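Work package 3, deliverable 3.1, input record:
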Amino acid sequence: MRSVALIAWYELYRLFLTKRGLLSLLAFALVWFLILRYAIYGAAQFFSVDQVGGIIAGLFNSNIINNLMSWQVPEIAMFWVVMLYLLPIFCVMLAADQTASDRARGTLRILHLRASRDGIFFGRFIGQLLVLFFLIIIALATTLILVMMRDSTQLLPALRLSGIVLVNLMLVLLPYTALMAWVSSMARSARQATTYAVIIWIVCSILAGWLSRQFPELWVLDMVLPGSQVSSLLQLSGWNTLSLALIPIVQTVILLFLGRMIMQRSDW
Amino acid sequence: MSLIECDNITKRYGSTLALDGVTLSLEAGAPIALIGPNGAGKTTLFSLLCGFLRASSGDVKIMGYSASDSRLHGRLAALPQDANLDPRFTVGHQLTMLARLQGMSSGVAHKEVLRVLDKVGLPEVIVKKPEALSHGMRKRVMLAQALMGSPELILLDEPTAGLDPPNVKVMRSLIAEAANNATFIISSHNLDELERVCKSVVHLEQGKLKGVVDIAQSRSSGYYTVVMAEMPVAANIIIASLKSLPSVNNVTFNEPNRFVIEYDAAQAGLDLTIMQCLSDKGWPYRQLVNGRTLEDQLYFGSE
């Protein structure tokens, strides 16, 4: 357990002390600034005006829009929507190199003399989750500042909603991070891991789509891919969102099982 | 309990048999050499001992534990041949992390990193990234990571490969010094180097164990090696002259200038006779060695 914690903690160092980590952080900060300034701030203005929200509801999926409009703090509602789609992409890029380049470089061998294969695999996985957790916290903090600037009385409800959003976003990101842990255990570079992930994603989605048409009674096929619960999540609010938590948790367990199996059996 | 026990281990890469039923038992003590030509299975055996590879069949035990057992962490250290540190972090940062994984606290780990870097003569690289170091310096840093803590067994895979002579000398003295506290197993092609450092040899060829040789025996009586400064006449003429000396049983020539003389061990004073013979003929020699080189013993010997 000590080695898992040390390796996981080291991933945060990787984010702050390496050029590549800082570049990722900068890219995230820039993208996030643009989203915050133009998407969240702008959209929150629209949502705070009922009539305009009504127009949007008419144009798009009214269930989702109506649900978002019911959120007490529009900035957090927009944060929720944007992050649900943005973070998985960022996660795939960020978590691609969990073990891949260390394997190619031989660094895993040096680590393995002091930590078990499980320690390295789960340490890196948890480390990536720590990094994502940290990024979400930062993004949430900036959004809360935006809320304060508009209406400081909404800080407390915004904090309550932030907790819900944080837990749900981490749940959404769990299987994506586990997927990258799996493909990274087979790859020798971050690019190769990303390529594997794309191939697996496309093959699984085609296969699942074809099977669900052939066997409509196999409803579980709709939940094979990470993020499959996102559209349903958008129709829920508050802690009700946790009613879908089992889907990403089961996906994560399966993906980690596959990754661990590769990690245990592979030659370094 | 033996330091290392290999019981009929086999390793396959697809259809290629890299190790074929190797059974071996090694005890703690003086440095042990692991030698063999390219493709003999040295790195495969090395990697199996470190737990980097899984044997296709057979069993490997280090100090009574299977090769990748976590109870060996800190007790088994290694310098894998092509392993490098992460180029994005400083040497000090990474070694401290590795020391912490060995169970040291943050403060103790930092002191230990300073100690081992000082030992390999590179205290200044603690703030440098691996990319900024020369090949020789990187090798020494990798040796430093292997010396951290108090490992009982240290495996070195080609520790002097690609090093210049001064760095080879540094590496050799570091190993000799550390060998007082740990057993070294050194895989290398450099037989001269191994002969200077090691006391016994594990000889692999085509994935099979050819034998475990005691280097001291190679220096025992029964053989002389003459290294010629130049070859003024054909080798067969020199062989014929040496064979005509009393008590000489056989003479073999190893290119380009080495003659191994096998003689009756009961006979004393042959060395003087050989020197006299070479002097009389006007054939200049560079060395007369009592015994055989490891290379002659392993690859050209009559045994």
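The radius of gyration of chain B is 23 Å.
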